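Figure S7 source data.
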Amino acid sequence: MEESNEKKENIDENEVIAEKEQEKEETTEKIATEETKAKFTFKCTRCDNCCLTRGPIPITFWDIELWAKNGVVANFLPYLDIYHKPDGGIDLIFKPLPPSPKEGEEKTPRDPFGNVPIEDLLEEKCPLYNKDQKQCLVYDNRPLSCRTYPLEFDGKNFTVVDVDCPGIGEEGMSKEDLKEMRETAKHMFYELTRMRISLPVLSQIISQKVMMDLMRQNMEAMSKMSDEDRAKLDEILKKEKEPQPD
Ligand code: SF4
Ligand code: SF4
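Tokens for the predicted iron/sulfur cluster complex:
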């Protein structure tokens, strides 16, 4: 009997030790997590690496409103494009410019509406970054996306999207700075969601309007045609419908 009581006491003691060990592990884990969280510090070093390799930069209504308020929308128009993303969604973006030709290479056009697919330009510099002057040409009007970089918010969590950004780990970030950065990331998430909901609808409305205008223009042109020109057009269309020899 005595022996069995002793055994029970040992088991109870082992349970208590195991519980304490687990508690200790949990506390260590909690401290480690908090330390990791507390370790996020950032100060932009203005190295401009992100401007050199950002690829398509998403534009939001907030950006458009800011440009409208500052009267600079027209400056941005040549650089805007619609990006059909691989996941099927669409974004309004700054389209990166094709890279400058290397020595001896044929010159590629530096037209923002050139035919280079955006997928080939994902690693290219922002079109509004001046490499020679090493500066953003639109700093005061830069998009929200540039203001929150490299921190992003996905509706649940914050993520550092560029672990190679030299600003990460830089000392000098106050609690207020961190709070502001997190608020900006949240704001970007809200604005981007708003844009992603509206853009497909707007794009459909605009395409429809363009199609209608084109049809109207065609009909007007047809109504102004002389009988002779109309006969020539009929002849061309008839030939196009005829089966062609192999
Ligand atoms: S955000 Fe990072 S990569 Fe971009 S300029 Fe600042 S330090 Fe450099
Ligand atoms: S808009 Fe300015 S800050 Fe933003 S990526 Fe382009 S050059 Fe950099």
